[in-house]
UniProtKB/TrEMBL annotation:
Pathway: Purine metabolism; AMP biosynthesis via salvage pathway; AMP from ADP: step 1/1. This is Adenylate kinase. Belongs to the adenylate kinase family. Coiled coil: none annotated. Monomer. Residues 30-59 are annotated as: NMP. One of its GO terms (cellular component) is cytoplasm. It comes from Thermogutta terrifontis. It comes from the Bacteria.
Length: 187
């Protein structure tokens, strides 16, 4: 099963992604985790990405696409994967489509986790990460609205988009997700 997971910062994608990959035994490809690891390891890619991340800006497409292209070749992706944080833009979605088409491995579903903005801000402000300062949070939410939300229409037109209410307990939200994914898992 090949899944794209979309949702604004603070929607709970990381928490739900862990539950999804455990249940369906697929690889979790979190661009945020990959970028933070590269930054912390001070790799050239990580240092370049950190220039953007520290300002609350999205990392440029070419950096992200190279990171994903390499990662999809890993053996743990053969059973399927959950893309978390990619694609973020139409250009990235088109690059992903081209990459997957060349391998004859199209996406199965795109999950959108929906959470109201006031709830997102409350959740993000409570995390205490260095990139969760109020001004950076605002910038990240603006970047999401302007650059990522157009993906919803893109995937809706391809009949891949399924939306999930992201408010409730972790288990309640996961049950909503599971109800959708079980269709694709043949369960």
């Amino acid at each position: 099963m090949r899944i794209v997971f979309i949702g604004p910062p603070g929607a709970g994608k990381g928490t739900q992604a862990q539950k999804i990959v455990e249940r369906y035994m697929i690889a979790h490809l979190s661009t945020g985790d990959m970028l933070r690891a590269a930054r912390d390891a001070k790799t050239p890619l990580g240092l370049k990405a950190d220039e953007f991340m520290s300002r609350g800006e999205l990392v440029p497409d070419d950096i992200i696409i190279d990171l994903i292209r390499e990662r999809l070749q890993s053996p743990d992706c053969r059973r399927g994967y959950l893309l978390d944080g990619f694609p973020r833009t139409i250009a990235q979605a088109e690059a992903l489509d081209a990459m997957l088409a060349s391998q004859n491995t199209p996406l199965d579903v795109v999950l959108e986790l929906q959470v109201p903005e006031d709830e997102l801000f409350r959740r993000l402000a409570g995390r205490g990460r260095a990139d969760d300062k109020p001004e950076v949070i605002r910038q990240r939410l603006v970047a999401y609205r302007t650059q990522t939300e157009p993906l919803l229409d893109y995937y809706r037109r391809k009949n891949l988009l399924r939306s999930v209410d992201g408010v409730g307990t972790v288990d309640e939200i996961f049950e909503r997700i599971r109800a959708i994914l079980d269709e694709f898992a043949g369960a």
